[in-house]
Amino acid sequence: MIKEENHIRRLYNERGKNDANSTTLANTLDKDIQTVFNSPEKFIMELLQNADDARKGDDDQSIDVAFQIVGQYLMFSHTGKHFDDQDVDAICDNAQQHLMQKKLNLNKTGYKGIGFKSVFVISECVYIISNQYCFRFDSQYSKWNHSSTSTTRYPWQIVPIWTLRSELPAVFKLDNSHVNFIFKIKPDRIRVVPQAITQLLQNPYIILFLRNIQQITININNKRQCIQLRKLDFSIFGRLIYVDQQVNSRWLIITKKQDISQHIHNQLQELKNHECPAKLKTATSLDIQFAIQLDSNHHVNCVKQSNLFCYLPTQVGCNLPFLVNTDFLLSADRMQLLSNIWNTYLFECIAEYHIESLKMMAEMETYRDDILILFTPKLKLEVNQSFMNAYNIKISTKLSYCTFIPSYLDPSRLLTWPDAITDDIDFFNTLPSIDKSYQQKIARYSLKDRQKLCNAFDISVLTERIQQYAAQSLADNTYEQLLTYMISTYAIEDIYLELIKANKRSYGRLRYYDSLSESKNNSCLGTKKFLLTIKNTLVSPIGAFLPLQSDSLLQQFLTSLDADFIHPKLMKIPNSKSWLNMIGVSNITDDALIRFIKQWLSKQGRKLAGVTRTDSLNIMRLLKNVSTILIEKEDDLKKLPLITKRGQLKPASTCYLPSTLSPTFDLEKLVKNDVDIVDDEAYSQDVPSRIKLRSILISLQVKNDISFYCGTFTIYSDASKIDYYDEFSQLIPSRIQSFKECHYHMAYLPYMRCLKIPSYAKIFFKNLHRYEDEIIRGMTNFKVHARSNKHRYEHEMEHYLKFMLNREPCIYGMNGQLYRMKDVYIPSIIKKMDAKLKRFLPQMKFKFDNEMIRLSDQLMILLGARNELAYNDVIKLFDRITDDNNEEYYPIYNSLYKLISKATWTTSQNDQRQRCRLKLLASDGSRQPAASLYYFSNQHLRIRQHPNIFKSFADMTKEEELLICRYFGVQILQDTDYVIHQKQLTSIFQGNKIKYLLKRIAITVTKSNLGQDMEQMYQEWITKYEKLQIMPVRELVLQVKLKADMTFKADFIITADHCLYYEEELNLAEYIEVIGQYINLPPDQINLLSQFTLMPNEMMTRYLQNHNYDVSAIAKLDTTSVLKDDNDSNPNLTETVTLENLSSSDENVSLNPIVSHDNYHHHKSSKSSTYADMVKSGKSFYNDDEPIGSLEGQVDFKPCVPDEAIKNDIQFIRYEGNYHSSSSSSDIVKSENILSDVFQLHSSDLTNALHTKDISREVNGKGNDQRDKTSSSHQWTGRWGEEFAYKYFIKYYEGKLNSITNKTQNQGSTQITGMDKKGNKRSIGITWLNCHQENNKPVDIKITKNGHQKWIEVKTTYKSKDLFVKISHMEWKCMCQYRKDYRLCCVYNAGMQADAVPIIKLIKDPSSKFFNGTLTPREIHFKL
User: Fold this and answer.
1) How far are the Cα atoms of 12, 334, 844, 1192, 1387 from residue 1358, in angstroms, in the given order?
2) Longest dimension (CA), the chain
C-alpha cells in the first residue's frame, strides 16, 4: 500500500466513526453548506480561489484553470501545485482549526478552511485526483447507508474514500500533470451549473486581481472558450483581457503599498480569529489596487458595474467609476464585508489613494484630461453607512490641500479642487486681461467632466461680476469688446435661458444661481449697472431706455427728469437692439413717464413753490402721449400744478373744468371768483384736441362735477382752503387756525346758497353721507376743543358746517318748504310719532331723483337738528287732535306722552302750555281739560274708569306719568289727599287664599338667602305681614279731601295699614301681583306667585317639594294670626302640614296627574269655556279639593287633550338601554294565551302612583280613604296617556300601509285592513281595554297584527324627562311570562300644549332588561 493510500485510509478511519459526535458534525456541515453556500455560482469562486492559492513555491509561472462539462459530470483542473499531506488534511477538515499554512501566508487569499465545502451544493460525489492521490467524498457510500433505521449520521463531506483510478467516471481524459476535480452534478443542478460557469465569459474582468491565474478555459459539451489576461506592450500598468483570442477590454491597474499604522495594528489584535486572520494581525503593509477601464484609444472609460474585490468580486456595489481590490475582511461566503475597524480603515486608505492616483495621472500627458471622469467626491455604498462616512471624511480632508487639477495657464501647474474654476463660457479666452487674478484659477479647458469642479465661471457668475468688468473695460477701452462678447453669448433668449439652466449642476457647487423670472425686467441682469448711457454713466437695464429717434427735444427734457437713454454707439453693435430688449431695455413707457413726473413732483416740495408756468406746459406735453387710464391710477398726480383762469398755479384736484370743456356741473356759470377754473387756452398749443385735453384733466382728478372731500387741517394746510362768510369770520376769531387739526371740513362751503338747486343739493348731501364718519369725528373733536378753550374767545365757537346750514333756510323739507337744520327733526323722532301726526312736523327731504340719501341721527344732531319735541310743536299737535272716534287716539296720546317725557323745557314754556288749556285723555276714553284730571301717585290701587282720572298707559313708567302730569297741570293726589270709605264683608275666603299663597312664596324667597339665620328670616316675614290687613269689602270709594263732591270707586287698594279689595270684581292674579310689588318681591317670585293663583293647593305643595323647598317651614310662618288661616271662617281651606304627610311623597317618584278626571271630561266636552277664559277670569282650572302632582319646572303649563296633541310631531324612541333608535312597527307584539291566568293573580302591596288603576281600593277595601283620594286625582293623567297612546298607534300603523282598503272604528276599538309598501295584505286591530272603565288588568292596549297579538302597558307623566315607574305584582308576572310580546309604553309631556312635544318611549321585553342590567330598579319590594 502506497503512502498516499495509507494516508487516506487513516483519515477515513478517524473521521468515519458512527457516534453522537459524528451526527452533530454531519448536521453542522449540512447547515453550513446550505446557508453559507446556498447559490451554485459560489462554488466557482471557491474553486478559482483555491487554484489561485496553489502557487508552486516562489515560481512566477502562471496558473491555467479549466472547466469541462460532459453529461452529468463536471471536471475542474489547474496547473498549480499538487496536493500534499497538509492539503489533503485541510480539505478533509472543517474550518482547518489546526492548519496554519494558509492562515499565515499573505500571498494566499483563503484562510477560513470551509470554501471547498461549497462544491457539495451541486454535487454529492466529488473525486480528487492529484499526483498519487485519488479519493472521493460520496454521500451514497454503502457504509453510510448500512441501516435505514439508524439515528446516527456520518459527516461524509470530510470522510475521504480511497478510490482506484479504474473506479473513476470514464468520461474525461485526465492530464496527470494537472490537479483534477470531478463532480457528479446533482440532478436538480444539471441546468444551473453550466449557466453559472458561462457567467464567467460575460464578466471576464473577474480574472484581473487573481495573483496567479492567467487563463480560464471553459469546455461545455465540446464547445471550448477561453479567458486570458495579458500585459500591454507599452505600459507596465496596462492589461488586456482576451475572450476567445479577441480583445474584450483594456485596463490600467495601479497599485499602492499602504503601510499599516501602529494604531490600526493594535486594534486588529483585539479582533477574534474568525473575524480577522492571523496573517493580517502580523502584517505591516497591504496592497490597494485600482483597475481603470480604457477604450480603444486608451482613454478612460467609466466602469458600468463596480463591485468591490477581495481578489475575487464581492456582492458589495459602489458608485466608483473603477474597480477596487484590497484585503477586505469578508463573511463566510466571501460576498459581504464585515463591519469592523479594519474595513473602515481600508475605505480611508481608498479615499486617500484615490486623490493620489488622480494626481499621478494628471502628471501623465496621456491621462491628464481624463482625471475628472474618475473623480468621485462622495461614495455611495449599498451597505454600511460608516464605510461611506470614513471615505467621505477622508477625501474631504485630502481635497483641501492635494493639488491634482491641471491649470489653464500652465498644465504642469496643478490646482486644488476647491480653488479650481471651470470657464464654461470661454470668457477668459476672449478677454484674457480683464481679471488676471481670477484667470489664474481657471482649470484646463480640455478637461473632461469639468462640471465636477465645485466652482464654475458661467453666465450667472459673469452676471454677478459684470458691473465690475464693465467699469474695468471702460478704463481699458475694451467696453465695446465686452458688450460684443455679451451680445454674442446672450444673442438669443432661448440660448440664454438654456445656458443658465445647464449650469445648475450637482456635485455640491458652491455658487448661487439667480432664478429667472418670466418678466424680462426681473432677469438676472436687470439690476446690474453695466450699460452705458448718453450721460456716460453706467446704469442697469431695468432703468434704461432705448434712445428716441424722432423727438430729440422730448429726449432732452426727459433726460433733465433723470431718464437714462442707451448710448448711441451701443446700438451699432450687431444684434444689440434685440439683446437689449431681451434683458429688459425698451422704449420709454407710459409707466416710466408717470414715474419721472412723480419723482419730479416730489422734488418740488409740499407747496410746489419752485414750479413755473413752463414746467406745467412741459408736463402736459408729456401727458398727452400717456394713457389716461394710467394717469387715473396715480393719486400723486392730482398735485400736478395747473394754470387757472385767475393766472395762478393750483393743484389739479382743487380745480374745475371750464365751461368750454363741457363739465357735468358747470360751476363756472354759478361762481366766478372763488373757484379755480383750468385755463384751457394756455394748453391749446401743446394739446390742440379739446377732447384729449378734457380726458387728461379728468384723469388728473380735475373736478368735472361738484365733489367734496373731508380732511383734517394741519399746520401744513393751506389757509386759503378755508372759505367762509363775513358773518362766520366775525363770529369765530382768527385764532381758529390754532386748532385746525380739530376742524374737519368740507371743501367749498360758501356755496350753501346753491343748496336750493336740487342737483347741487343731491351732490352735497351725497358727499355729506359719504364722509359721515369723518365729519362726526371732526365735529366731536371741535366741540371738545371749543369747551376746553371757551375762556380764550369772546364768542361761543360754532362749527363752520353747522353755522352754514343754520344761517338761513337752505334744506328742503318733505312738504317742499325750505328750513334751517335746527328747524327739522331727526328721523328717529318722526318714527316714534303716530302716523297721523308725522306730517305736521318739519322733516328733512332725503329722496333726490329716486335716490335715498339718509343722514344719521348723530350727524343731524351735531348739525343742529332737533332730537326732542319743541313746546310750540306740541301745542300744534294737540290742536290737530279732533274729538272724532276716541279709540283711534289711544296710540296718538301714548306716542306723544313718550316723546314729551324726553323733552327738556323751561319753566316759562311749561306755564305757556298750561295756559293753552290743552285736553288730555281720561281713563274712560274721553278728552278732558288737563286741569280737571286727577292722578293717583299710589300704584297699589285699581280705580274704575272715570272722566276725571288721567289715562295711564302700560308701557309708561310712574316717573314718566308724573312728568306729563306736571307739564300739563294734572292734579296729583298723594295718599293723604283722599279719604277711603268701605263696607266690609264677613267672609274672608279670598283673603285667606291670598295669605295661603303668600306663605308658600315666602319659602321660595328665604331659600335664595342661604347662609342667614332661617329663624330670623321667618321672623322678618312675619313682621312684614303684620301690618297688612287683607280684607274684602262690599264697596270701596275714594273721596278727595279738598273737593268733597269728587269721589272715585276703586276695586283694590293697599295702604300702610290695610289691603282692601272689592270681592265681587276680584281678579286674584292681578291683585296678587300688586301685593308682590308692594312687599318688594323679586320679579321671578312675583311671576311664580301669579302662577300659584292658577294652581290648586295640592299642586303647590308638590311643586315646592320637588324643587327642594322646606315645606315644613309653613308651620313656622303660621305662628302669627296675620298669616294663619281662619279655619272657622272657611273650613274648606283647612290644611294640616306634618312631617308624616310630607314624607309620604317620594321625591324620586314623579307625581303625574294634572287635572282631575271630571275636569278632563269637562274640558273635552266644553266648547265655550277655554283655558284662556279661565286665566282671564282669574279662576283656577283645577279642583282645589284634589291633590295634584309636581310640575317639575313647568309651572306655566297649558293643558290640551289627546286629539290636539296627536296632531303634533311626536318623538318616538325605542328604548335599548345605552342608546336610542327609531322603532319599527314589528316591535308591537304577541298573543294572550296565558293572560287570562295572569288576570286571576292577586296584586301585592306595590302601588303604581302613575297608573290609572285604583289598587289601593282593592287592597284596603275602602273607597273614601286618603289613598283612594290620591289615586282618583291621578286618573286624569293616566287616562290621557292611554288615550294618546291608543290614537298614536292608530296613526302609526296607518302610516305603515301604502293603501287602506277598510277602516272600522268603534269606541275604544279600531280595525284597519290594507296593503303594506311591499304589496303584502295586512290586517291590524288596536283595542283600548280601559276605554269605558278601568278593567284592573296588567295591560292597557292590545294590538293584533295578522292574528299575532302584542300587549302594551302605558305609563304616563306630564314631565319631559325622568319618569319613575312602579310595577305592580300582576304587571311583573305578565311581563316575565310574555317576554318579547310585552311592551312598556312611556308617555312624556302628557296634556301639554304644542310647545311641549309629546314623547313616546317603547320598551320591548322589559323583564329581560332588568335581568341584563339595561334597566336598574331603584328599590325592590317583595312579600314573603
Assistant:
1) 106, 91, 59, 9, 8
2) 172
